[in-house]
Amino acid sequence: MIGYGAMNLVMTATPLAMHSAHFDFSDSAFVIQWHVLGMFAPSFVTGHLIRRFGAPVIVIAGTLAMTFAVGANLSGGTLWNYWFGLVLLGIGWNFMFIGGTTLLTEVHRPEERARVQALNDLLVMSMVTVSSFGSGALHHALGWTSVNVGIVVPVLIAFAAAVWLALARRRASQVTT
Q: Which domains does the chain have, with CATH numbers?
């Protein structure tokens, strides 16, 4: 939920920020095209990475990619800042979304599957709706910096939760061996 909402907030505001910075529409299209590639191209390996390192570690990697995306977005106003920031944002979303979805499949009994998935979908899409509508308003009222800074705390919360889960699993595996 956090990964999708954070990604959507920044992605939706990016063309607005680029327009405000006097970039051409073709530049915004270029950045968004590469962002979409960053979102979906890692899917070819994300499952393998999850099997190798575990879902919490991949979620952690996703939160780090999103944090670096904020850094890239705020470190300058060139086309390459937007491009690099949005590619990292897409990769971060991929790792957080697939890692989180994998974790979701591990935390319920089979008879709970439909309810858990339904609640997850409701929460994720509600967050996407809020971030879609809020993105333009936030950018208009407070600017590009605020849009980016706005995702830092939620992403850090996801980071802390994933680190806690990874450490708890590690301790549990050491106790059973």
A: 2-176 (1.20.1250.20)
